[in-house]
């Protein structure tokens, strides 16, 4: 007798039965508040879902393994080549060529100024055996010309190469704040480029609808999907207007979504894009075909503090991208937020995917999420929400007009503010940064530290939020549009793409190629900021490091632990993690028995601030007296671990200034505590 036949002998459990059991555990608490979470799109995430009936699997472009892609971003072409070859020898089968002008370069990127530089970068790389995606930002067309010139030099036919040229003028404009020409002229360039590629038998993807700029600015899953859909549709329209069929136009597109550490929403987001784009294809009178979908792990979730935890985040993200149906996945190395990753960090990024593919065998099942109630429900909900936001962008005149008016940036800024509040209150904790910090962590090795001023116009210093930046949460406000570069906005004859390729083959430099682009009516918009959610807490830690460099020790907080170890351990541990998230060293003890001992212990600690920790029962008996003792001993700021209860007035009058508890504004409280702890005597 097998398990299935045995199970058939028992009645099927129902949701109603489960709910009755849950009600007993909740003891009158609200089910929705306790067990139902909500995404930043307002989508309800239930604790339990029934099996989804009648769901259709979502197909990759090609069945089987996804491609393991590694970034090529060392500024020196020779060094970049060495790292790329190590990646390919170590199991990668795709490369992402990131040049210095790409927003994703973050101050690095290969410095490619000629076809010779590109040749050195890809020396000994067999282009006909790997997949190559180009990430060149505003210089995409010029770098594409160099790639074609190199392929011709090496004797490759374009039909034999797996290429993604990554041309994404809308995405580059969203990130950098400018487009070098008005949309009509840009669409003409796109049409001209595709015509040349088609004539040469190009079988890859010329254009990319990229969601990274929106995700890094704080967009929700549905907002990212809507922006990508609107971008893809704008490219379809532009190519059709320049004489290409809709079928040819859609075959020239690929897509890129961001994978983060939220497994369920990442899987649902990738699956939703395939369904949504199929709906657009149907509306265009086309028979839907599987799209080429790239995924890259999120810059937004990376941390500079305890960067080893980034390995866990990227593992979940890569797993989610893989089972979500990505055709190629790029994992950002765990030290990316600190600088240019070394060979070890790159190997970890690469092996993360190889283990998922070769040991976990994730690619052996097509769309493993199909039929799973949770994934299917979230996919459906994201499709509905994203389609509504996409239609809103269309009503505004399309993605370009929405960006020009600033309305899309404002909607994303509102979600970013919502997200920042959740991070500040630790409702969305960041392991190793806002939760379970390690103030004695050892440093990690990078090839080059993160430059203070990378190319992004909204970069705020190391890691995207400079050490000296003011410690305030960003409001739902968008920056002013960036002015056009010198020389933009002047008319002139547009240089055809075949001419660019010939110039590149003849040795023209990147500036020479860029100078050929006529720029009638260059477009400027408010650029989207590139933000990591950990930055506010990292700035607190930076202040602590600066204080230690100046004084030889960290700012301290004295924990007045009352009662036995069993009494104070829970709240003392909470307080220790709380204050160390701001870089303050918690001075622990094994329990204080009288006021004289408390006073002397505080004086000996040399701390300027203190926090009382114990149970509510002990607070009633001893907290007011302890607070008065600490005040007499010279504490400048006094906290109590726990929510303010009915004794709040008495405790406040005794000298307690702030109560710390789950859900309080951790960021604000820590900033104020640091102000006092780091103040001059």
Molecular structure report:
The structure is a single chain. With about 675 residues, the protein is an alpha/beta fold. It is about 45% helix and about 10% strand. It contains 25 helices and 19 strands. It has an eight-stranded parallel barrel, surrounded by eight helices. The protein has a five-stranded parallel β-sheet with strand order 16-15-17-18-19, with helices on both faces. Helix 12 links the parallel strand 9 and strand 10. Helix 6 packs across helix 18 and helix 20 runs parallel beside helix 25. It is globular. The termini are far apart. About 5% of the residues have low confidence.
Q: Classify the oligomer.
A: single chain
Tally of helical runs: 25
Note the overall shape. Answer: globular
Arrangement of strands in the largest sheet: 3-4-5-6-8-9-10-11
Write the layout of secondary structure elements.
Elements: H1 3-7, H2 15-26, H3 31-35, E1 37-38, E2 44-45, E3 67-72, H4 77-89, E4 94-98, H5 115-121, E5 131-135, H6 140-153, E6 162-167, H7 169-176, E7 178-179, H8 183-199, E8 205-210, H9 212-216, H10 221-241, H11 246-251, E9 253-259, H12 263-283, E10 293-297, H13 309-324, E11 328-330, E12 339-341, H14 343-358, H15 373-395, H16 399-405, H17 407-424, E13 446-449, H18 497-505, H19 510-514, E14 523-524, H20 535-551, E15 556-561, H21 565-580, E16 585-587, H22 595-605, E17 609-613, H23 616-633, E18 637-641, H24 648-654, E19 658-660, H25 666-677
Parallel strand pairs: 3-4, 3-11, 4-5, 5-6, 6-8, 8-9, 9-10, 10-11, 15-16, 15-17, 17-18, 18-19
Antiparallel strand pairs: 1-2, 7-14, 12-13
């Amino acid at each position: 007798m097998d398990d299935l036949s045995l199970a058939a002998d028992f009645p099927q459990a129902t949701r109603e039965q489960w709910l009755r059991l849950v009600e007993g555990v909740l003891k009158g608490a609200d089910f929705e508040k306790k067990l139902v979470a909500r995404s930043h799109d307002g989508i309800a995430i239930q604790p339990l879902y029934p099996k989804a009936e009648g769901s259709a699997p979502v197909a990759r472009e090609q069945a089987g393994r996804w491609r393991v892609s590694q970034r090529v971003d060392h500024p020196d072409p020779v060094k970049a080549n060495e790292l790329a070859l190590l990646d390919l020898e170590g199991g990668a089968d795709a490369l992402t060529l990131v040049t210095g002008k790409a927003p994703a370069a973050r101050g690095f990127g290969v410095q490619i100024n000629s076809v010779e530089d590109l040749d050195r970068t890809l020396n000994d790389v067999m282009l006909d055996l790997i997949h190559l995606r180009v990430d060149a930002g505003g210089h995409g067309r010029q770098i594409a010309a160099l790639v074609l010139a190199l392929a011709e030099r090496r004797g490759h036919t374009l039909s034999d190469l797996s290429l993604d040229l990554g041309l994404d003028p809308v995405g580059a404009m969203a990130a950098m704040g400018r487009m070098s020409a008005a949309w009509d002229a840009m669409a003409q360039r796109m049409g001209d480029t595709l015509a040349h590629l088609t004539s040469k038998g190009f079988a890859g993807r010329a254009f990319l609808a990229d969601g990274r700029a929106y995700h890094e600015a704080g967009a929700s899953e549905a907002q990212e999907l809507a922006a990508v859909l609107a971008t893809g549709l704008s490219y379809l329209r532009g190519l059709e207007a320049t004489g290409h069929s809709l079928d040819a136009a859609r075959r020239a597109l690929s897509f890129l979504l961001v994978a983060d550490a939220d497994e369920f929403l990442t899987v649902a987001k990738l699956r939703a894009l395939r369904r949504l784009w199929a709906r657009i294809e149907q509306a265009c009178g086309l028979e839907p075909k599987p799209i080429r979908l790239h995924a890259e792990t999120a810059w937004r979730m990376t941390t500079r503090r305890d960067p080893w935890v980034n390995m866990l985040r990227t593992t979940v993200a890569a797993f989610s991208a893989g089972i979500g149906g990505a055709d190629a996945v790029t994992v950002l190395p765990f030290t990316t937020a600190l600088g240019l990753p070394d060979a070890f960090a790159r190997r970890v990024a690469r092996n993360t995917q190889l283990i998922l593919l070769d040991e976990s065998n994730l690619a052996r099942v097509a769309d493993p999420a199909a039929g799973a109630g949770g994934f299917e429900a979230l996919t459906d909900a994201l499709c509905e929400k994203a389609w509504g936001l996409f239609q809103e962008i269309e009503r505004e005149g399309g993605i370009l007009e929405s960006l020009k008016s600033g309305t899309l940036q404002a909607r994303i800024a509102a979600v970013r503010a919502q997200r920042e509040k959740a991070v500040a209150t630790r409702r969305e904790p960041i392991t190793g940064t806002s939760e379970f910090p390690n103030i004695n962590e050892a440093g990690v090795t990078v090839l080059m530290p993160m430059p203070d001023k990378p190319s992004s116009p909204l970069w705020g210093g190391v890691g995207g939020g400079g050490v000296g930046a003011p410690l305030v949460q960003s409001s739902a406000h968008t920056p002013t549009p960036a002015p056009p570069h010198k020389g933009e906005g002047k008319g002139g004859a547009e240089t055809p793409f075949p001419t660019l390729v010939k110039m590149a083959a003849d040795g023209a430099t990147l500036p020479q190629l860029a100078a050929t682009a006529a720029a009638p009516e260059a477009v400027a918009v408010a650029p989207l900021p590139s933000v990591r959610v950990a930055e506010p807490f990292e700035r607190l830690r930076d202040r602590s490091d600066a204080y230690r460099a100046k004084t030889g020790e960290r700012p301290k907080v004295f924990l007045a632990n009352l009662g036995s170890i069993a009494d104070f351990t829970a709240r003392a541990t909470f307080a220790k993690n709380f204050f160390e998230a701001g870089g303050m060293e918690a001075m622990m003890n094994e329990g204080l028995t009288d006021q004289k001992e408390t006073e002397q212990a505080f004086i000996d600690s040399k701390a300027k601030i203190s926090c009382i920790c114990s149970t509510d029962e002990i607070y009633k008996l001893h907290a007011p007296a302890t607070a008065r003792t600490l005040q007499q001993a010279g504490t400048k700021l006094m906290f109590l671990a726990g929510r303010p209860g009915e004794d709040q007035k008495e405790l406040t009058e005794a000298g307690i200034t702030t109560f710390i508890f789950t859900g309080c504004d951790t960021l604000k409280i820590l900033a104020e505590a640091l102000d006092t702890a780091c103040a001059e005597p």
